[in-house]
Every structure is written in structure tokens, then in C-alpha cells.
Amino acid sequence: xxxxxxxxxxxxxxxxxxxxxxxxxxxxxxxxxxxxxxxxxxxxxxxxxxxxxxxxxxxxxxxxxxxxxxxxxxxxxxxxxxxxxxxxxxxxxxxxxxxxxxxxxxxxxxxxxxxxxxxxxxxxxxxxxxxxxxxxxxxxxxxxxxxxxxxxxxxxxxxxxxxxxxxxxxxxxxxxxxxxxxxxxxxxxx
Length: 190
What we know:
This protein is of the alpha+beta class. The protein has five helices and seven strands.
């Protein structure tokens, strides 16, 4: 009888232990977020200004990750290129990166859910500090490297569970979004 009571008490106590959550910091998703944001907000991309080499490298990164996750990239090797004529007559060339997971339902697969994030960021700007011009780089961890990381990981998770998708899902990394939302406008009007 004492053994039965002791066994019941130990079993009940085991149900109320605080779970060990330390392994959450090492999850695949958290590691992927760190990796994506680490690259997209790195100094090598110099803030990913619209039309810059950094934006081009970020677009290639997004394309490569989507392809690695098994998402069909429909925007070509260099992205979906478009030009923006500036007031001084120059043309800024930017791009969107588009990936698609097709839905399984024949009657709904041509109905799309669009998930997007900004590809570009501010880049560099010269500001006056104590009367002296200083060039600052805006790396953009929150100026949308985090949004791109979220979009990429959502693409991975949805691709893994694509058998549950009736509708097709389109992922778009919008280029030149800080230049009057041109990437989004270009995508919507094509």
C-alpha cells in the first residue's frame, strides 16, 4: 500500500515539472533566422540600397534559399528585372524575386495567396555630425532582413506541408520598395 501511494505521488510530481526550454534556442528555425539575417544585414551588402550590388546579392541569396527549400522560382536567374527612370535621367535597375508553391486543388490552384517582403533597404547616406559629413551604412536587420527571413522560413514550412495547400502561394521579395514601392507596383501590374 505504501509503495502504491509513493508511486502515485512521484507520478503526480513528474507531471508538474518545468519543461526545459533551452533547446528552443537551438531549433532549426531559429538557426535559419540567424543565418538569413546575418547574411542579409551583413556589411558586405552595404545596406542593400535599391539598384545596388548589395540588393543584387540579396536577390541571389533569396533565390538560392527558395530553390534549396524546393520552392519553384519563376523570376529567372537575375530576378524579374525592371527599371526606374530617375529625375536626373538615369535608370535605376532593380528586381523582384518570385517563388511559387502550387496548390493541389484544380479549381483553386489559380487563386493565389501572396506573401511578400522588402528586398532592399536604405543603403548608405551621408549625414552631418558636428558639422562634418559622415557616411553611415544602414544594414537593415529590422529594415527588412527580418521580414525576408520570416518569408523564407514560411516558404520552407509551407513547402514541407504543401500537400495541405489548396491554393497556390506566391512569395515575392520586392526590389526597390523604398523607391515609391516600385517593386510591388511592378509585380501587381504585370
